[in-house]
Amino acid sequence: AKLSEVINTRHENVKYLPGVKLPSNVRAVPDLKEACKDATLLIFVLPHQFLPKLLPVIRENAHPSARGVSLIKGLDFDTNTKLPVL
Fold this sequence. Notes:
86 residues, globular
C-alpha cells in the first residue's frame, strides 16, 4: 500500500513518525495539484532543494492570496544579491 493510504487509514505516518497518532482530520494527499487546490494556507516542510521544482504547480493551484509558513531547513543564496534563491 502507498504511504498516503496507510496514513489515511491508520492515522499514523509509519515511515517517518511511527507510533505518533495523527488527528482524524489530517489527510495525506499524494498529488500536489490536488493538495494545493484553492489552499489559502500552505505549510512547507521539505528539504529546500525540492521547492523550486514544486513552486510552479503550487502557484497554479493555490488561492491567489494564499499565505505560506516555512519550516524548511536551509536556503540557497544568490552570491551577488545575497538574497534567497527560490
